[in-house]
Amino acid sequence: MHRIMIVDDEKHILQALQRNLSRQKGLKIVACSNPQEALEIANKSHFDLFLSDFRMAGLSGGEFLVFTKQHNPHAMRLILSGATDFDGLVNAINRAEIYRYINKPVLANELIITIKQALQFYDLEKENRQLLEQIKLQQNELDQREMALNQFAKKIKYNRTTRRPGDLADLITSLDPENPIVPGDIDASTMRQIYRWQTELALAE
For the chain, what percent of residues have pLDDT higher than 70? Predict the structure, then answer.
C-alpha cells in the first residue's frame, strides 16, 4: 500500500484528483486544500509520493515540496501547474527534486500513468537502498572475520624454546569452545601430533 498526499487550494480540482486516484488499488490518499496544514501532516507521517499544485495561497507548491524533503527525503514529488512562470517552475523543480511536472488541465489517464511510473521508480530506489545496506552489513561481517583470523594467526606462532603444546591446543579450543583441550589431559599420540603441526607451522613461517 502506497501513501499519497495531494494538495491543491482549489477544492473542486482537489476533489476530482482524489476521486480519480481513489479508484486505483494499492493507494491510500490524503487530500488537503491548505498547504500549511498539509505540511504539518507530512512532518508527522510517512508518504511515498506528494502531488501538489504549483500556485497556492500562503505557501507555493514548490516551497511545500521542498519542505517535505526534511521528513520524507525519499518520497517522489510531482507538481501540477497551468502557470506561465517557467523560471519559477524550473527553480521549484530543481530545489524540490521534482520527479515530473504535469500540465493543467489534468487528464485523468495521464495522471494515473505518471503516478504509477513514479511509484515504480520509488520502489526500485527503495530496493536499491536495502541492497546497499545489506552489502554494508556483509562487508562489516567479513571485516570482523578477517580480524579474528589475524588474531588466530598470531596465537599459533611456534615458540622454538618452550615447544609448548598449548599454543595449538588453544587455537583448536577457540575453534571448538564446547570441547576444550587441556594440555595435561592430552595423550601421548595427540601430543606428538600437536608437536608435528607446530613444527610444520614454524617451518612455514
Answer: 72
Spacing of C-alpha 122 from chain mean position: 12
d(CA 60, CA 201): 74
Digit-coded pLDDT (tens) for 47-66: 999 999 998 988 889 999 99
3-class DSSP state for residue 17?
A: helix
The vertex-90 CA angle with 87 and 95, nearest 5°, equals 125
- Tens of pLDDT, residues 94-137: 788 888 888 888 888 899 999 999 999 999 999 999 998 888 88
Please give the model's pTM, rounded to 2 decimal places.
0.67
Please report where in the chains the cell 606428538 appears, as a residue. Answer: 192
- Quick one: three-class SS letters along 172-196? HHHHCCCCCCCHHHCCHHHHHHHHH
Element (H, E) at 36: helix 35-42
- 15 CB-side CA count, 13 A: 3
